[in-house]
Amino acid sequence: MRAAEALATIAETTLKSLAGVRDGAGPPKQNGTLDTVCRPAASSSKTPQVERMERMELMAALPDPAPPLKAADFPPLENTGAPFKVAVFSAREHDIEEFQQANEDFGGNFTFCFHSAQLCLDTVDLVRGADAVCIFVHDDCSAPVLQLLREGGVKMVALRCAGFNNVDLEAAARLGVAVARVPAYSTCAVAEHAAALVASVVRCIPQAVENTRRCNFALNGLLGFDMIGKTVGIIGTGLTGSISARIFKQGYGCEVIANDVVENPKVKDAAPDGLGIAYVSQEEIFSRSDIILLHAPLLRETHKIINAEAIQKMKRGVIIVNTSRGGLIDTKALIQGLQEGIVGGAGLDVLAEEEEYFFHNWSNKVLLNDELSVLSCFNNVVITAHQAFFTREALLSICHTTLSNLNAARNGLEPPMQRGKYPTLLTK
């Protein structure tokens, strides 16, 4: 991998230091400025308490793009009569716990019917008698399903996620079914997870952990590379993408370039209001980037944006990370790119056709998805099961924003903006 420059630097500096001792001149400074000779640390007049306070002040000065949400950040829901019945699909233990607790906190306005099954034509009968349905990323809200929901009296589809590619919005609007989402529930969580995937792939963390569990403490096969100075290409610079841009530019010291249909001024504009990041074509993202991050929504225009043709344009050894939607990547093309060595590694929190596997325990079963099975065999591929959003703060935000959307539908009102500025309503 390209991080071999680190070993070359170590070897070169060591040889120069030894030559300096041999010739009596002493070891030279590295890069002309960095002292290579170990000397006693200079005494400081500052007490440990003062140094600690200075570090705390420095940390306090760092920007906080999206502080964690608390229950107090959400207005209480007004109890205006009989409970509103909601059928919740793809419900997991954490969903049940959060929604039941929030319902108690805000007056018991809702009656929830939790279903672990995904919403589809085969399960739509479970909605009988519900005023609204609450769905997640893998539920099916295609036109036929929406037709049956409307005939059953459903007034709203409440997504407890930001993406809405699983809902036919045209059909919903035609049928008069309101659709609302949670647009900004885990932007920091997803961006942080993307950074974690990059670090895991670049520094071979999963393989290293597995080695040490087997008492293998050798460094063979674990060579990484420095992040500083590398080029990171971000496709999709909305809320999550802009936070990723900040992490990699200001945190890792990378050169960041971006691509999006709509340019985000907080990304493009110069400091102090923006990051001063250049927007370039997709072709330039592919040809220049050492690391490519996918934060774009799944639309017709972005479906399989990473395909065989795109991979052939990429730098050899490129790292690809996807925390958005699996359909952004042609999985077969990615596997071929990994086999050919064009793709040096991948961090995947989402996969195409993940619905049957993610959020379920398959440890005692045989995987029937050949692509997932093959990807799992690569040492340079890290897969997490759609968990980028999964933090305490995100679950709280999902729950309370969803309840606000449902309460609006219950009272014939338009759902409020999340945090006062992020639209939640997709169709009326």
Automatic annotation (TrEMBL):
Keyword Oxidoreductase: yes
Keywords recorded for this protein, A-Z: NAD, Oxidoreductase
Pfam families reported in the protein's UniProt record: 2-Hacid_dh, 2-Hacid_dh_C
Domain D-isomer specific 2-hydroxyacid dehydrogenase NAD-binding: 196-388
UniProt GO MF annotations: NAD binding; oxidoreductase activity, acting on the CH-OH group of donors, NAD or NADP as acceptor
SUPFAM superfamilies xrefs: Formate/glycerate dehydrogenase catalytic domain-like, NAD(P)-binding Rossmann-fold domains
Domain of life of the source: Eukaryota
Residue numbers spanned by region Disordered: 20-49
Domain D-isomer specific 2-hydroxyacid dehydrogenase catalytic, chain residue ranges per copy: 86-414
Similarity annotation: Belongs to the D-isomer specific 2-hydroxyacid dehydrogenase family.
Entry protein name: D-lactate dehydrogenase
Species the sequence originates in: Effrenium voratum
Source taxonomy: Eukaryota, Sar, Alveolata, Dinophyceae, Suessiales
